[in-house]
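subagent[fold] <- orchestrator: predict structure for attached chain, return tokens only, no commentary.
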Amino acid sequence: MSERKRIVFIINPIAGTHGKEEMPQLIEEYIDHDQFDYQMRMTEHRGHAAEMAKQCVAEGIDIVVAVGGDGTVNEVARSIVHTQTALAIIPCGSGNGLARHLRIPLDPKKAIRLINDCHIEQLDYGVINGLPFFCTCGMGFDAFISLKFAEAGKRGPVTYVENVLKEGLRYQPETYEVEDETGIYKYKAFLIACANASQYGNNAYIAPGATMKDGKLDVIIMEPFDALEAPQIAADLFMKTLGNNSKIKTFRTKRLHIHRKQVGAIHYDGDPIMSGKEVEVHIENMGFRMVTNPDMPEDDSQPNFLLNAFSDFFNNINNVRSDIEKSGRRIQAINKVLLRKLTRF
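subagent[fold] -> orchestrator:
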């Protein structure tokens, strides 16, 4: 019999919207005891997961499991890059962007069974101004919304769409100089996002065609839009149709340099931070090991349950378009209708 692998579960007890009281019992019940020697360690403060993951690498642990949301996943993942220690996820957050992209079950029992399968692959990750990210990074409204989402009293897709609709109409776009392998280009943009994976989380698809195995970033430039176009853009995020929107420009690259006129926020995997005028982004090809789902490839799902609500809404929008142009109150009414439809699911 082969030697058992060593695995450590790093549990963030306050991630997401639900408690983790039952998690130790679930791990004990469903982990393959014949295959793994395992430990569980609880985080106590921000950055603690990163510290513990680094220690796991030093100890030669085979797999470190991030039990929490996107922030916990990022802390653990950035600590095991370019090592023989693999990352696994039991998604317990509000967004779960990387887990959703890799089709890792949101049910903890199924996620543990997937760890038992122990199918490990090499995947790409990105770096923005020295900060590793695994799903997305960005600036402009992208980072601004990350700040708003972090401040929100509730989490989930309705909160995300609500922030996009409410704040988007007040946000002032910036002018950026963007340099890649082909040259330097100037854009007036609402946001610039760089995606390693397809979505922010909550099935909000900023880059539906992104893959973590191609050694390239999907770059998304969103041009300024008006009040009438805001709900459509929010809908396209969830319908996986953002690339068809006339306000969106996309390309792929290994490396990107962005110059902006003033300092501002950037985000990495939804975690916002203030940064300077110069922003460097690049991909690290096959830079970390990950326990993946061998039966389900990277996210190729059809539009999710929000599709019908959005389609319903936009089939009727032309009936009130002229009134919308006359009154800002109509725009608020439309946003309320959209959010009401979302909350039915």
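orchestrator: received. Logging for downstream: Confidence is low (pLDDT under 50) at residues 302-327, 341-345. Residues 236 and 242 are 5 Å apart (CA to CA).
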